[in-house]
Design goal:
2 domains, 10 helices, about 280 residues, six-stranded mixed beta sheet, six-stranded antiparallel beta sheet, binds zinc ion, 14 strands
Length: about 280
């Protein structure tokens, strides 16, 4: 199954929903950054969540950034996503290895620790929107749920999952977001809560062969659900040698001279995609 995200609505019930399958792009993130299994799970969950949140943006040029600053061994996670279905991201310490948690799962909460989650939306206005909340569990889905409730006053349910194949490559990755509109009825909430406590995990559903559409039907099948078109999603970094050159041109003459003083090649590193751009002393000249 190719990676894609869908949006859906149940207007009469007052629910909007998103679902994603993201195996290939999480595998690309893992390979690019040499991520350990627990870091793959952490970044994969955040990338999947951010791509669904990207679908809430109005314009393809709008940019969503989520940064998690934790006191766990993985330290910080940063991802960006756009409505066009592209995302990129990295973990400060990509090779964290931890024992499984009490449930026998990858200990994402232990790798992230306690700290903050910050969302910045650059909508092309003068000031970007931003909201920050304290991490609840560091497991990402609960933290995003809390962010929606506190910062956006939108009751939501977020499910995210990454399943590894023999701790080496990504077997399944994906997630869903359900959001309640202000006029939602009590009985709708009660029936949703019942469904949410009875469904298997996202990766179990994906492993069983369920598509994002199937997952939303399983969650919201009892409502008047209308599902939008599939939008392909991918890991994409917009850095390039040309962009790095332009950034170097924007430096002051003295700053460039300082960079050149050592007569060594200059390496500019892109954290998002783990690419090095090397410039020789003569190029700097
Ligand atoms: Zn890059």
């Amino acid at each position: 199954m190719e990676d894609y995200v869908i949006s859906a609505n149940a207007p009469e019930a007052g629910i909007r929903a998103f679902a994603i399958t993201s195996r290939a792009l999480v595998e690309e993130a893992r390979a690019r950054h040499n991520l350990s299994p627990v870091c793959t799970a952490a970044l994969g969950r955040l990338l999947s969540g951010a791509l669904m949140m990207g679908q809430m943006l109005k314009n393809d040029t709008d940019l969503l950034t989520i940064r998690i600053e934790g006191d766990g061994p993985a330290k910080n996670l940063t991802v960006t996503a756009r409505a066009d279905g592209t995302a990129k991201g990295y973990v400060s310490v990509p090779d964290v290895v931890l024992p499984a948690n009490a449930l026998g799962k990858l200990d994402v909460g232990g790798a992230v620790g306690r700290g903050f989650l910050r969302v910045v939306k650059d909508l092309g206005l003068k000031e970007p929107y931003s909201g920050e909340v304290e991490l609840q569990t560091g497991e990402i889905a609960e933290d995003l749920t809390y962010y929606f409730a506190v910062s956006e006053q939108t009751p939501s349910s977020v499910g995210l999952g990454v399943l590894m194949k023999k701790d080496v490559t990504v077997d399944q990755a994906g997630g869903f977001i359900l959001q309640l509109m202000p006029d939602v009825k009590e009985e709708t909430i009660a029936s949703l809560e019942k469904v949410l406590t009875s469904i298997p995990s996202v990766t179990t559903m994906l492993k069983e062969g369920l598509s994002p559409e199937d997952i939303l039907k399983k969650l919201l099948g009892s409502f008047d659900l209308s599902i939008g078109e599939r939008r392909p999603v991918s890991f994409r970094c917009d850095c390039s040698r040309e962009k790095v050159k332009r950034a170097l041109f924007s430096l002051k003459k003295e700053e460039l001279q300082n960079l050149r003083a050592e007569e060594e090649p200059l390496t500019v590193h892109c954290h998002f995609c783990n690419t090095d751009y090397v410039f020789s002393p003569s190029e700097l000249l």
